[in-house]
Every structure is written in structure tokens, then in C-alpha cells.
Amino acid sequence: MYRSEDHRTFAAASESGMEASGEQTAADVWARVKRRLRAELGEDIFASWFGRLELDSVVEGCAYLTVPTRFLKSWIESHYADRVLSVYRSETPDVERVSIGVRSTLGREATPQRRPSEAPRPNAAPMPMATQASEPKMPSMALPQEERGENSDLGGAPLDPRLTFESFIVGRSNALAHAAADRVAHAPNGQVIYNPLYLHAGVGLGKTHLLHAIGHEMRAQGRRVIYLTADRFMYGFVASLKAQTSLAFKERLRGIDLLIIDDVQFIQGKQIQQEFGHTLNALIDAGRQIVIAADRPPADLENLDERVRSRLAGGLVVEVTALDEALRTSILSTRIEGLKTIHPTFEVGPNVISYVARSITANGRDLEGAVNRLLAHATLTGSAITLETAETAIRDLVRNREPKRVKIEDIQKLVASRYNVSRSDILSERRTAAVVRPRQIAMYLSKVLTLRSLPEIGRRFGGRDHTTVLHAVRKIEKALGEDHALSDEVELLKRMLQE
């Protein structure tokens, strides 16, 4: 079949008196090479890596091929260059080597770099990719977003200019997280440490502030930074799949110096999680820094693939705990002092600040809300801020503050300590009475004090079945109605966990 096509091509060229048969034959050979690659490598691999590989020209025994991105060029050269050359040489002895270049976004017609005085020669072969070192522009998709503005198609979220290291207030609960973030941001000579740095905390405790602060500092050093929320990452990946630009999306993410992902607990979908895992591996293996934030430690991210959780746990994991009263007082005082530059008459006495710090214990955002309420009262009524007015202003924040989020790990530790067994005993297969009763109490408290399902609780207790958890919960519920001492003991454990 191929011989007849070549014959028809040659005959048509001869009749027209033009020497176009060489170019046409090169295209036919390339079509056969692609069909061979598809058959040998399979449809999935071919579509992923060779679907946009095109022939530019064949000059002096070299086949010049082009792809749209540098990432694709690097991958094919590293993994498939020998295979492409082998298949090519089996189709035609004229090709002795293969060269892969990146296509310009200006279009194929702009590829040959001619001087204005030069007239194009009829049927001249296109200039080979290797001679285009003087190309004036690189493809815009290969540049990080921060070098092209926040509205580019990279999809990163902007950094808040207010959230810097200078505006972050350090206390006992966040000192370790702040020190780790500062070390990452100021690592000498672009050194990568604590990779990935994983910060986890409840709502409004400052983890996002630290993410932005790291981003600001490293961007000021001229580093390529992208900050993404989990939903922004998912949207960008899905949009790239629909637009058939997923390879460009991957290259843009993997060509940066610092990747920041916030609220990673919201990443869903098997394919998206796989791509997230591949991105983590590629950046870490390439020596690029990753900083992650979530509302729980990696082991508690049940929705994420186990390999991704393991990768996240392989760096430095730091928890930002609840704000202590001294830190809450510092946050309030700093915020009030800042507002006084705009509202000079805004005065809040130390007794009021102390009252607000003692009353609002949930998170920093509630503290911000309290300051805004005090400011509104002072500016709208013109009266001084007293304890009575402060109590009225923040009443809803005190009443609606969130209860402490209880973790299964904390339950296991407290119960183990209370009954003089180890946490490993509770998670083990031991069936002695000294271990079984604490284990059942811990399972009961996990069901009552957390939102975890029975299968999730079973997995956290040594991989047990949900029916085992259900049996333990029912047995403890029955025992509580019959044993007043046990009921008092369990109530005490509840209070200790919720304080």
C-alpha cells in the first residue's frame, strides 16, 4: 500500500514538473512512524506524549520534530528518543538522527527567521529547529504566572499584601510553624528544606497567613511562586483537560520554584488526586519547594490516596494549635493600634482587651470581628468603649463560638493514659480485659465526639471492621445505663477532651 502511494506521489510530482515529491514522501514516512509508535506503545501513551509531536522537516539525515511545550520535549527526549529514532530508521534509511524542538506560539509560518530582503525560495525546506537559536520569544505558556501578571492563564490565586511575616504575631501556639515557614522562605542559595512543609490547623489560626508570607518573601527574592487553593488546582486541571492543554498545565506547575497549596483536604477525584501526586513527586524530585496547608494532619485525609498522604507526611508536619490568651491579647492590641492610625479617637482600655481575649477563644477571625464591632460602636455612637458596651458588642461571637474539634488520636491517647495502657495496645489485636474495655470506650467516644463514620473509626483503630465499632458503641451505651461509676468516668473524659 505504501509503495503505491509513493508511486502516485512521484508520478504527480513528475507531471507537474516540480520537485515536491521529497517533502510529500517525508510526510508519508512520518505518518507511518506515528502509526508504528501508536501500535507499539499503546493508545494511552501515544495520546499522552506523541499526539502533538509533529514533523517540521528532514534535512541532511536529521528529522526535526516539534512539540508545543518544553516539558513535553524534555520527557520525550528522556524516555522515548531512542524508540522514535529506531522506528524512524526502520521506515527510511535516510534518517540517521532525530532532533526535537519547541514550537513557537507565533505559528508555523513564523518559524523560519528570514531577513526582510530575502525572498522565499520555491519548495525550499523549512529551516531546521537547531538553527533557530535567535528566536526572539519563548512560548508564553512556559513562563510562570508571577512573571506575567495575576491575570494570565496559569490560574494562580493572588497573594494578600497584608499577610507578611512582619504582620504575623508569634505566640506559643504558632512559634514552631512560624520558625519553619521563616526557615523555608529564607533558605540560603535556593536550598530546599522540610520538603514538603505541611501546616495544619483549625479555622482562623494563621496557617494561610504563613503561606502568603512565604510566597511574598520568596517572590521578593526573584523566585517563581504560585499559590493555589485546592479548588483552584482542581478547576485548573479540569479546565486543561477540557481544552486539551493538560500537558501545558503540568509543565507550568512543574517549572516553578515554590508551589503553595492551601486547603488540600478539599482535593477530590481519582484523576485529580493522581495528577496532584505526580506533581508533588516531580517537584520534590526536581528539588523544588512545596508548602501545603490543611485543617488536619496527612494521616487524617481519608479522601486522599494513601501514596499522596505518605508523600505529604514525608516532610515536616507542624500543627498550629489554639491561640492562648496571651497571644489573643497581642493580636487584639496590635489590631487596635493599627486602626488608631486611621481613627485617632478609637481607644480601648486594657481591661476591655483582656475581657475580649478571655471571652473569644475560637480563632483569630473572631478576634478580628470583635475589633470591628468595637470600632463600629465607637465611631457610630461616639461613646467610649466600656466593659458593658464590649459585652454587648461581642455577645454573638461568645455565644456562637465553635466547640473544640476532637481528634480520634487525642481520644486514644487520653483513654490509654487514663487506663494505664499504651495507645499501641488499643490499636493491637490483644483481647485481654485490661485492653478491651479501654478500646471500646475510645471507640464510643470517637463515635460521640467526632463526625467520623463507623468504617473510618474502624480504620483508625487498627483497621477493624465497622461492625466491631458498632458492637463496642452499643456495649458501652448499655454499660453507661447500668454502671454509674463508668458513666461518671466517661463524662469526665468527655470534658477533658472538649476543654
UniProtKB/TrEMBL annotation:
Keyword DNA-binding applies: yes
InterPro entries associated with the record: AAA+_ATPase, Chromosome_initiator_DnaA, Chromosome_initiator_DnaA-like, Chromosome_initiator_DnaA_CS, DnaA_C, DnaA_dom, DnaA_N_dom, DnaA_N_sf
Region feature (Domain IV, binds dsDNA): 379-499
Region (Domain I, interacts with DnaA modulators): 1-118
Sequence segments annotated as region (Disordered): 103-156
Chief location bin: cytoplasm
Signal peptide: none
Keywords for the protein's UniProt record, in alphabetical order: ATP-binding, Cytoplasm, DNA replication, DNA-binding, Lipid-binding, Nucleotide-binding
Biased composition (Low complexity): 120-130
Complex and partners: Oligomerizes as a right-handed, spiral filament on DNA at oriC.
Name of the featured protein: Chromosomal replication initiator protein DnaA
Organism: Microvirga guangxiensis
Gene behind the chain: dnaA
